[in-house]
Every structure is written in C-alpha cells, then in structure tokens.
Design goal:
The structure is a single chain. With 320 residues, this protein is an alpha/beta fold. The chain is built from eleven helices and eight strands. It has helices at 2-18, 70-76, 79-85, 103-120, 134-148, 169-182, 186-203, 211-216, 246-253, 262-274, 306-319, and strands at residues 22-28, 45-50, 58-63, 88-93, 127-132, 159-163, 238-243, 280-285. An eight-stranded mixed sheet has the order 1-2-4-3-5-6-7-8, sandwiched between helices. Helix 6 crosses helix 7 (186-203). The chain is globular, with a radius of gyration of 19 Å.
Length: 320
C-alpha cells in the first residue's frame, strides 16, 4: 500500500510538472556513488529541465537538500516557475546525497552543464547554482573548486544562492559533540553520532587534533586566514538565506546560537565583504521556516523569498 501511494504521488507530481513544460533527461541507469536516494529501488540518474518559451537569458540550477527527492523540492518553491516565465532555463539534477570527495557530483554536474550549454547554445557565464543545506554546500563547493582549479570544471558559476548551509566542519563537529552530550532530541543525537564518526574516520580525529584537514575541507573556516576556502569566493556573487528562530532552537531542539548555521553564514559574508566582495549578501528571516508537512523548522526551503532571489538572479544575468 505504501509503495502504491508513493507511486501515485510521484505520478501526479509528474503530471503537474508536464504542464510546466518539463522534461526529464536520463543520464545513467546506474548510481554507484548513491548520488540520489529515497527513490525506492531506482538507480537512474537524471535531471529535470524547464525550458522557457521565450529567448533564454541564462540557466538556474536548483539542488535538493539531503535525502529530498526532486518532486518534494519543487512542491516547496516557486522559484523555478517564476524563473521560466522570465526566460531562464531551470535544471534540477538528481543529486540529494553523494560522496565525501564530491568528485562524482562534480562529474555529473559538469556533464549536465556541458549538455545544456551545447543543446541550447548558452554561454558558460550564464549559469547560477543554488540549493538548501547539502544542496547549498555542493553549490558553494563547486564554486570554490572551480575557481581554484578551473581546468577540472566545465564552468565557474555566475553566482550562488544558498539556504542555511553548514559551512565550517570544525564548528559542525563541536555541534555534534554538544548534541551527543545533551542527549535530548534522539533523531538529532543519532545524526550527530553518524556525522562525528564519519569525520573521525575521514580526518583521523577531531578538529583539535587535525585542524588543517578540517580547514582544507570546509567551505568556510572561522579564524583561518582569509576564511580558509572562502577566499575563492571573494569575487563570486552570493545570496545566502538563514532563519533565526530562537523559540524553535530553544524549545524544540534545546539549542542556542552556537548551534545555528547563521553564525558561520554571517561570518563568511562579513569576511568576503572585508575582502572586497560587494556582491555577497545574507538575508536573515525570523520564524519563516516550515517543512513540506507543515511542521516548523528553519532548515527549510520556505525561508527563501523567491521573488527576491529571482530579482537577484536577473540582475546578475543582465550585468553579463
């Protein structure tokens, strides 16, 4: 029964997407790196493409959050609908999990970007990438790595939009330690144990023991010279969203501001502005976070103002 309901929901979602001039492009029938999960037993890798009926101004790439299927991402936003109406081609890749090195993700994104550029005759300097949580992290990491080693990437993004991205792995490790020690909200405790054990395995131990490894693998590192890898974003237009919901933090998760992703987001934007990036911006909302099922949670797509994000994207494209 559960599988039948899931299939019906996906079916009706696809009908709705078809009405939006949607195409599903198959990339691979195998997924050896587990780039896309929670798709039942399917192993296909693909992307959804929304093509405007007017001349194409640029490309918007939307990356789902960790474990979130594309259909659920698109139910929570209207950015893709607004963008297509303004002449922007929208791409949503089947990436919601992935690897520690990100190499498989980069390879898939490069393949998609190359195909889109060739098929629609779009310049490589017209691509804007963004997402929520792990999708935001992948967007920012792609941007940093493409600036650092452009020979390994099809393009350097025109800009990045990012929702509530964890940026500093050293700080995130400490957050995990606090969650485990408090031992209150069990889903978060189990997640913290998993993340901490994974970091211990990858880096050999804590950030106190191996600080350079954490700096090397973080998007931003507070206190490190030039913010660590954030220095590669000093010329990258950025629009970041985070939501400060102290009632939810304290009463729902028993956390404080040290456990809030916004601390590092604001710190990184400030660092980039000090370095001369006048196109780096953060928008802090309050209490706007809700999940697809209606439960309150600031780590959600709803913290993004789609109209504001779209206008920022249009401004970027018009400047090129």
């Amino acid at each position: 029964m559960k599988n039948t309901i899931t299939i019906l929901l996906v079916f009706f979602s696809l009908i709705e997407l078809k009405a939006q001039n949607f195409q599903k492009i198959l990339l691979s029938e195998t997924d050896p790196s587990d780039l896309y999960i929670n798709d039942e037993d399917a192993t296909n890798l693909f992307y959804y493409k929304f093509v405007p009926k007017t001349a194409i101004k640029g490309v918007l790439v939307v990356l789902p959050s960790g474990g979130e299927v594309i259909e659920n991402t698109l139910k929570q936003i209207n950015l893709h609908k607004l963008a297509v109406k303004k002449g922007i081609l929208v791409v949503v890749p089947s990436i919601n999990w992935g690897t520690d090195s990100r190499e498989s993700e980069f390879k898939l994104l490069n393949k998609i970007f190359s195909s889109i550029a060739e098929t629609h005759k779009i310049s490589k300097d017209k691509f804007i990438i963004g997402g929520l949580s792990s999708g935001a992290m992948l967007s920012l990491t792609y941007a940093e790595k493409s600036v650092k080693n452009p020979e390994n990437f099809f393009l350097i993004p025109k800009g990045i939009f990012a929702l509530d991205a964890p940026l500093d792995q050293a700080r995130f490790y400490k957050y995990c330690e606090r969650e485990i020690e408090k031992n209150i909200y069990q889903p978060a405790v189990e997640e913290a144990k998993w993340i901490k054990n994974r970091y211990d395995s990858i880096y050999g131990g804590s950030p106190q023991l191996f600080p350079e490894k954490y700096i090397e693998n973080s998007i931003y590192s507070y206190g490190a010279k030039d913010g660590g890898n954030a220095k590669y974003l000093k010329n990258m237009p950025l629009l970041m969203f985070t939501d400060l919901d102290t009632e939810w933090l304290i009463n729902q998760r028993h956390r404080d501001l040290n456990d809030w992703n916004g601390i590092d987001i604001i710190s990184m934007i400030n660092q980039l502005k000090i370095q001369g990036n006048n196109n780096a911006k953060v928008i802090v909302s309050q209490g706007k976070g809700f999940k697809l099922d209606g439960t309150k949670n600031p780590h959600s797509w709803s913290i993004m103002n789609s109209e504001v994000c779209l206008n920022w994207i249009l401004d970027l494209l018009e400047k090129s």
